[in-house]
Amino acid sequence: MTVGIATFDQLVASGGKRRFDTVSLPVCGLTFRIRSLLERELSDYQAAISSARDDKQRQIRLKVANRQFIALCLVDGDGNPIVPLSDIGKLAELDAADSSHLYDACAAHCGINKQELDALTKNSEETTPSDSPTS
Questions:
Q1: Distance separating alpha carbons of residues 88 and 66, to the nearest angstrom
Q2: pTM of the model
């Protein structure tokens, strides 16, 4: 069996379809529906985490990054987000075992891993300018 090489048009035509899964939390026992993210949504999320003007702002963004990611992925039966933007902070009061399990399930479903996000946050640290010019 010969596998053909796909074209750009085929790649673009294959995108934009949401995938859904369910996850049961180990402590509270509730089951939630999660959705995949579009590349644009994931890039917007990553840009929001990594763009900070100073250390204090970076710390604030990193503290809420997991909750924001979970909120992006949690949906109802129709695929609509269930976490109101104004209530994302309430996710800070979840049992850590449940929130970690939910975060890991969302990340796996979206095709990213913790190491990638760790690298992203480390790369967001401000770099010290060099005294020597670049060539």
A1: 10
A2: 0.80
